[in-house]
Amino acid sequence: MILRILIAFIFIPLFVGLVLLERTIFYNVLITLALLTALLEYSGMFKKAGIKIFTFINILFLAAVLFGLARFRVYELNILVLYRGFTLIIVYAVFLTVFSLFSSDIKEGVLRLVFSFFGGFYVVLLGSSLILLRNLGPFHTLFLFAVVWLYDGGAYFIGSKYGKTKITPLISPNKSLEGLIGGVITALAAITALKYISFTSALVPYNDLGHIYIIVIFLCLAAQSGDLLESLLKRFCGVKDSSNLVLAHGGVLDKMDSFLLAVPIYLLLAVL
Q1: Are 236 and 230 in contact (CB under 8 A)?
Q2: Which terminus has fewer CB within 10 Å in the chain: N or C?
Q3: How far is CA 182 from CA 31, 67, 175, 205, 217, in A?
Q4: In angstroms, rounded to a whole number, what is the distance separating the alpha carbons of residues 143 and 159?
Q5: pLDDT digits (tens, 9 = 90+) for 213-252
């Protein structure tokens, strides 16, 4: 526990500094490396379950998506952009389908196709929304990360002490309803405090408190769902962590799981 907290205290200030830099290339490089590592961890998890993911195709898909996002801005979304994105996904699906046809076993081919495509959606498409998030501005990025980190921390500590009502005992027996409620209350209380402290108010890029609370609640629920989704995948693969890369924290995918659903939800709430 002490090691986990120490690593967090070192990483978080470095990450905040990276987000606040005017040039986003350093943030984008960090996210790109994180997504690449998460893809490799995803493939490694399923390899232990006897399913060989088309990792090379997924990496090419990641490169294509990131290239397309290089100059894209969230507010520039239009029909042409949607069409190009849809076309890229179709081409990606076709490549996966063609390669799966050459599998030595029909069941193996179907499993490789399904879980490879899911990996592309889960890690690449959802994960690349972290790039779009920074395009909204540094304070939108810090706001979302603050909410998710506050929720995770509150849910963990309150759930560890008071958790009795299990949410999904078969998937993640340590997750409790008390922890979820405690995490939401922690995030709401902390964000309210940040909003009304003069030197931290910029971290909350909204004025209406009711609007802020709605966004925070949605983000907390999305973060918890993302965590449970990765737990489901790990249960299926029979692994405890996606890897042992991050000391005392598991793998990169383990650290990103709460954000993979939260970021797209936030983008929808921020843009619409």
Answers
A1: no
A2: C
A3: 29, 40, 12, 24, 12
A4: 23
A5: 999 999 999 999 999 999 999 999 999 888 887 665 678 9
What does the pLDDT look like over 53-88, one tens digit per residue? 999 999 999 999 998 887 666 666 667 667 778 899
12-20 mean pLDDT? 86
Alpha carbon distance 35, 32 (integer Å):
5
Q: Which of 75-79, 116-120, 207-211 has the highest mean pLDDT?
A: 116-120
Give all strands (DSSP E) within the chain, no chain letters.
166-168, 172-176
Q: At what angle do helices 2-20 and 25-48 cross, to 10 degrees?
A: 140
H or E element, residue 92? helix 79-100
- Count of CA atoms in the C-beta half-sphere (13 A) of 168: 12
| Tokens representing residue 43 in the block | 């493939």
The reported pLDDT for the residue numbered 3 is 60
**Residue type at 262?**
A
d(CA 81, CA 64): 14
Contact, 263 vs 129, CB < 8 A? yes
Q: How confident is the model at residue 41 (pLDDT cuts 50, 70, 90)?
A: very high
**Rounded to whole angstroms, how far apart are CA atoms 59 and 137?**
27
Write down the pLDDT at residue 77: 64
Amino acid at 154: G
CA distance 267 to 43: 28
Residue indicated by tokens 């907390």 = 220
Q: Is 217 helix (H, G, I), strand (E, B) or coil?
A: helix
Distance of CA 168 to the CA centre of its chain: 20
| Contact present, 260 and 123 (Cβ < 8 Å) | yes
User: So where are the chain's domains?
Assistant: 2-271
